[in-house]
Write a structure and sequence with these properties.
Length: 141
């Protein structure tokens, strides 16, 4: 945002993206509002995501408040009934993820949300340990 005075900025989002090069995205109130509406509409319409419970393969906003991906992932929680975060101190605990998914079985439609490399890491751990885990094909009503 180079066309607005600094006092009109509402939000700064920091990210290293996939390149590892730090960047800052500054947003005014109109841009933030449009972004939020667009993201929620996409999640609901494109993915049919509304309700259920999610395992977030990411840190929480409390753990990493400056990270752009974490802020985006946190937006999912407003569409869901329950959520849990499973990356703490930069470590993923696959056994805790599996235990949570099993605890939610028959109670919630279960969702895995996170960057592809962590989903892949979780799947590899589950396969290596021979854990059988079947997620929901249809929403639980």
């Amino acid at each position: 945002m180079l066309t607005k005075p600094i006092h009109e900025l509402e939000h700064e989002l920091r990210s290293t993206g996939t390149s590892g090069i730090p960047s800052i995205s500054r947003r005014d109130d109109r841009t933030v509002t449009r972004s939020v509406f667009s993201i929620y509409a996409m999640l609901r319409e494109l993915f049919g995501l509304f309700g259920g419970a999610a395992v977030f393969l990411s840190p929480s906003a409390e753990d990493m408040p400056e990270m752009g991906l974490v802020k985006l992932i946190n937006m999912f929680s407003g569409l869901l009934d329950s959520t849990r975060f499973f990356v703490h101190d930069a470590k993923l605990d696959p056994e805790a993820v599996v235990a949570q998914l099993q605890a939610w079985q028959h109670a919630h439609t279960r969702h895995l949300i996170g960057p592809p490399f962590l989903v892949e890491r979780l799947v590899k751990e589950i396969e290596e340990k021979g854990i059988e885990l079947k997620l929901d094909a249809e929403p639980i009503s």
